[in-house]
Amino acid sequence: MIAGVWVLVLLPLVDALQARGWATDIPVPSIFDLRGPLTLNDTFIFGWGWGLGVYQPLVFCIGVVLLFSKEQGRRRGKLDWTRRWGVLCSYVVLLLSASQILYICALVFAGIAACFISIPLKYQPHSIQFFIEVSTACLRYGPSPMIGAAIVLVAFSSITILLACIPLFDALRSSSRCPR
After folding, report:
1. Which pLDDT value is given to residue 122?
2. Other residues' Cβ atoms within 10 Å of the Cβ of residue 121
3. Averaged in consecutive runs of 10 residues, what is the pLDDT profile of the chain (180 residues)?
4. Vertex 20, ends 19 and 22: CA angle to 5°?
5. How far apart are CA 75 and CA 180, in angstroms?
6. Can you list the pairs that 158-167 forms with residues at least 24 positions away whose Cβ atoms lie under 8 Å?
7. Where are the domains of the chain?
8. pLDDT, tens only, 107-134
9. 57: which of 13, 70, 97, 177 fits an S-S bond (Cβ 3.0–4.6 Å)?
């Protein structure tokens, strides 16, 4: 439970690095041969300045799951149902956050497929059908990032944090020396 609290404390780290301007100063190793230096602000972790990074939803989910984990020697209580629902809500938050990133990936796949289609037929790669099917399926059947998805994301995040208060209160109550 303490590890989950510490992971959740690191959640505002991204915003602090961006607010101070340090994210543009931290170099990141590059796999591909790029023309300029790659900084932490240019990576998928921070979302290229669009707020679509993977750091915050992933750290939120990991922190909440650790927060709801069972401690050794703890007796079962009548509010243990909040742990299951809290973990489930944190996974919903992660999936709703991933929908924005998957939508952008589907648009990129559609662009790659369009570039491949523009190549003469005899030089087209065999993977063109894969790009067309994946991008079409994601754009047609996948969740599109709309204002409703953002509202549901905020609602599930709030519910998760409210459910997290119950195990924290229970842990603080059971560790106190005062009689019940």
Report:
1. 84
2. 6
3. 78 76 73 70 60 73 82 70 84 82 83 86 83 86 76 87 81 64
4. 115
5. 16
6. 159/89, 160/64, 160/86, 160/89, 160/90, 160/93, 163/82, 163/85, 163/86, 163/89, 164/64, 164/67, 164/68, 164/86, 166/79, 166/82, 167/1, 167/67, 167/68, 167/79, 167/82, 167/83, 167/86
7. 2-69+78-175
8. 888 888 888 888 888 888 888 888 888 8
9. 97
Residues in the chain: 180
What is the C-alpha to C-alpha distance for residues 56 and 70, in angstroms, rounded to an integer? 24
Which two three-digit tokens encode residue 24? 């543009």
State which amino acid sits at residue 128: I
Scan for tokens 């589907």, then name that residue: 106
